[in-house]
Amino acid sequence: MLLIKVGGGANINLDGIARDVAELDDRIILVHGANAARNELAERLGVEIRVLTSVSGHTSVYSDQELIDLMLMAYSGLRNKRLVELLHQHGVNAIGLTGLDGALVRGMRNKGIRVREGDKTLIKRDLSGKPVAVNRKLVGWLLDNGYTPVITFPVIDERNVAINSDNDDIVTLLALAMQPDWVIQLIEAPGFLEDPDDPESVVPVIPPQQLPRWERRVTGRMKRKMHAIRQLVQPGCSKVLIADGRTESPITDAMAGKGTVIG
């Protein structure tokens, strides 16, 4: 089984990914983002996107009801259904789902995010949280009956409310529940870069014991991604590939070793 995280960047080759999925003789779960679509839609609608940085250095989008509505349009609407459409065009029986559908992914609402503003530490509360449980029975039934799940935001919280959550955390939870052989992360870079400004600085292999060092070193979205990957490569868990989602055949290239192997 493969669990594939499709990044939300504007240059990700969705058609190439769909074509690769069609050619693979394996059960596949897809989880996707839609940051570029969200940002474009926000600009068109005049919605401000506010990014919070916690005291630990992790970044997240401040998720009020207006932003949740925006993300529903971009993630579970436009991006999800276009990817499902492409998969069907390549003969894949895809089904698009959010964490809400069938309570596929349950989350726990954040009690607050500690952030620094000037010389003050503040608690910011919003409609965001951490995924805590996967409806493994539903995912298993879909796979056993020939469907390819295509999963995205939002998740459903303890009050049955749609909340924002980090896709890397959702991928981690799915991996721990479903035990795929590989988790493939398709991003807008050739792999994990030692120097974010140098596309030639791909780190080909990262042993699990080096992950804490890399997590301390990186910033922004990559810090959260590395933290989530640490949970995936515990003994007995999946191996991870970080590879370029912009190539002609992103999944094929990743499985051929083009990118970064962790685990």
3D structure, described in words:
This protein has an 8-stranded mixed β-sheet, with helices on both faces. Strands 3-4 form a two-stranded antiparallel sheet. A two-stranded antiparallel ribbon has the order 6-9. The protein has helices at residues 14-23, 35-45, 65-89, 136-144, 167-178, 211-217, 220-232, 250-255, and strands at 2-6, 28-32, 51-53, 59-61, 94-98, 105-109, 113-117, 120-124, 129-134, 148-152, 155-156, 162-163, 182-187, 205-206, 239-244, 260-262. 35% of the residues lie in helices and 26% in strands. It has 8 helices and 16 strands. The protein has a single domain (2-262), classed as Acetylglutamate kinase-like (Carbamate kinase, 3-Layer(aba) Sandwich), CATH 3.40.1160. Helix 1 (14-23) packs across helix 3 (65-89), helix 2 crosses helix 3 and helix 6 (211-217) packs antiparallel against helix 7 (220-232). With 263 residues, it is α/β, with parallel strands linked by helices. The two termini are 17 Å apart.
Distance between the termini: 17 Å
Strand content: 25-35%
Total number of helical segments?
8
Number of domains: 1
The secondary structure category is alpha/beta
Assembly state: single chain
Shape: globular
Which CATH C-level class is it?
Alpha Beta
Tell me roughly what share of residues is in helical segments: 25-40%
User: Whole-number radius of gyration?
Assistant: 18 Å
Determine the CATH superfamily: Acetylglutamate kinase-like
Main sheet summary? 8 strands, mixed
Mean pLDDT: 92
Parts with pLDDT < 50 across at least 5 consecutive residues: none
Number of β-strand runs: 16
